[in-house]
Amino acid sequence: MTSKAVLIGVAIIAGGVIGFGYTLIKSSHPDVATLRKNITGGMMEQCAKAARAAPGISEPQVQAYCGCTATKLDAAMSDDEVKHLVDLENQGQTGMPPELAPKLDLISNTCRKEAQISD
Q1: I want to staple 115 with a disulfide (CB 3.0 to 4.6 A). Which of 21, 64, 90, 110 is the partner?
Q2: What stretches pass through the bilayer (predicted)?
């Protein structure tokens, strides 16, 4: 499996935990900024964990790729999309909604290039 395929899978896995942290604070009804912070932190953590298992990727590349992916996905999501993810998490659905998959794929490819990870 190529690094590209692994990292696209990593991005999808990380996206699958995009509601990470919300479960810990869902009773307090946090604002969107707090939700974004928790989503980004959880995604960064899960992405790094998964990317470290990819062959031929150094730790600086893992950090660059996952930081880029988490930051760009946060910037690409509207407040309504963030709230939608939280609603899905509240319903027990932690996977990446299909409507966000094209954004995540584009972001993954961009970040892979920025982190200088070859195909």
Answers
A1: 64
A2: 6-25
